[in-house]
Design goal:
Layout lengths: L59 H16 L4 H38 L1 H4 L24 E4 L3 E4 L3 E11 L12 E11 L17 E3 L7 E2 L16 E10 L5 E8 L5 E8 L21 E2 L3 E4 L3 E11 L12 E11 L18 E2 L7 E2 L16 E10 L5 E8 L5 E8 L3
Parallel strand pairs: 1-9, 10-18
Antiparallel strand pairs: 2-3, 3-4, 4-7, 5-8, 6-7, 8-9, 11-12, 12-13, 13-16, 14-17, 15-16, 17-18
């Protein structure tokens, strides 16, 4: 059976609830006359033992006792008595149900109010926080250890790198395949230069702008799959990369981009950029940094990694053909011809040796070149051991003239190999 007050489960022989200490009538005790002492344990009107109990707490023994009692009353053929008892029982049951509903509703109402205001432990949070402020980022304020810059101002770490945000342009284009629904989308133009950063693991300086973005309401922004034409690249020593980032914001207006980066001496540097979309964009000219001459192979010279591969840049020619389906607009487009051979390279994750020459290209003024979708006739392909191939790559640059091409590749023993070619354009 169950306690009629707190609804705790009790054995049929219990005389008191161990939870709320309410006196309990044992289920097997025979029903007594109406002269018995009233039960005063539960809240509500007094109830004598011979009065019916709520069906929720009535046990089988109680029901049997009631049936026996009713049969005894029927044998007395006194119809007025059971009618009176039944009417009294209905009234008492109705009173009990009313009391239970009132008590339960009161408890539930108190709980709901506590959940709505959460004032007891955390203060009146629910009444103060709006829907727009319920996910405020911990990065909404810039720490004292961050250098703060605006559009057009340059963050320079001596002997390492420089970074400038050139501007932000709002776009109405949306990616139908993205599950994000930003209120505003911006294309951010920026430029960075490797003025001395060298590292055994990294092959140059690389900056993306989607590390920590905070919008005007303090919520985190995010990288959005938009129409970016210039992607960030790893800039080797002495090179400059001009790139774009597509950023989505849940609230339009001025936003912040903060970042931290270690230099090649393992010292951390932090900067934050305040991006005001209404501010006019800058277009700065970057002077080519003065760096020590970088050793490089020339056209016709071969780079050989024993037991792995050999590669030779065999020529370069300019082309006037342009791809009308690309938004890139290079000043010059070059076709670089090269050959490579598999001298023993094997890898469990690839089908053979595959080498390209357009991943890290620096033009005559130190700007990063890029792969251009041009008219290639001889594409590179994976080679089995012992095979050789003639291939070509189409490269776009912002400044015509000689190019520096760096190739980085891991050999079959997971060792990184690196070489640079100086490609002189006639």
């Amino acid at each position: 059976m169950y306690c009629p007050r707190c609804r705790a489960f009790l054995p049929d022989t219990a005389t008191m609830c161990n939870t709320c200490k309410t006196a309990i009538q044992p289920a097997y005790k025979p029903m007594q006359s109406s002269q018995s002492q009233p039960y005063l344990g539960a809240k509500g009107p007094a109830m004598t033992y011979n009065e019916p109990v709520s069906p929720l707490v009535q046990t089988a023994a109680q029901r049997n006792a009631e049936v026996i009692e009713k049969k005894k009353e029927q044998k007395k053929k006194l119809p007025i008595i059971p009618i009176a008892i039944g009417a009294g029982a209905l009234v008492i049951v109705a009173l009990l149900v009313t009391v239970i509903v009132l008590l339960t509703g009161k408890d539930r109402g108190t709980k709901t109010a506590a959940n709505d205001t959460t004032e007891s432990a955390f203060g009146n949070i629910g009444s103060d926080i709006t829907e727009e402020e319920d996910s405020v980022s911990s990065y909404s304020s810039i720490g004292d250890d961050y250098e703060v810059f605006n559009i057009g101002e340059t963050w320079t770490v001596d002997g390492q790198w420089s970074l400038t945000i050139l501007g932000a342009k709002k776009t109405d284009e949306r990616n139908e395949y993205s599950d994000k629904e930003p209120e505003a989308v911006y294309i951010v133009d920026y430029i960075y230069t490797n003025i001395g950063y060298e590292d055994d693991i990294m092959d140059g300086v690389f900056f993306s702008l989607d590390d920590t973005i905070v919008d005007s309401k303090g919520r985190n922004g995010y990288s959005y799959l938009g129409n970016v034409t210039s992607y960030a690249q790893t800039a080797p020593l002495g090179a400059t990369c001009r790139a774009q980032a597509c950023i989505g914001l849940d609230h339009d207006g001025t936003f912040k981009i903060s970042m931290s980066k270690y230099d090649d001496n393992a010292n951390v540097h932090k900067a934050a950029f305040v991006i005001d979309p209404d501010k006019e964009a800058y277009d700065i000219s970057i002077q080519k940094p003065e760096v020590a001459e970088i050793p490089a192979l020339s056209i016709g010279e071969t780079w050989t990694v024993d037991g792995q591969w050999s590669i030779t840049v065999t020529g370069v020619r300019e082309t006037d053909r342009r791809n009308k389906y690309t938004e890139k607009n290079p000043e010059k487009v070059y076709m670089v011809e090269y050959t490579y051979s598999n001298l023993g390279y094997e890898d469990e994750y690839t089908d053979g040796l595959y080498i390209t020459v357009d991943d890290m290209v620096v033009d005559s003024e130190g700007m990063m070149g890029y792969q251009y979708p041009g008219d290639i006739k001889n594409y590179p392909k994976p080679l089995a051991v012992g095979e050789t191939i003639k291939a070509e790559s189409c490269i776009g640059v912002e400044h015509g003239g000689d190019m520096r091409i760096t190739i980085v590749k891991y050999d079959g023993n997971k060792n990184k190999q690196k070489e640079t070619f100086l490609v002189k354009v006639q």
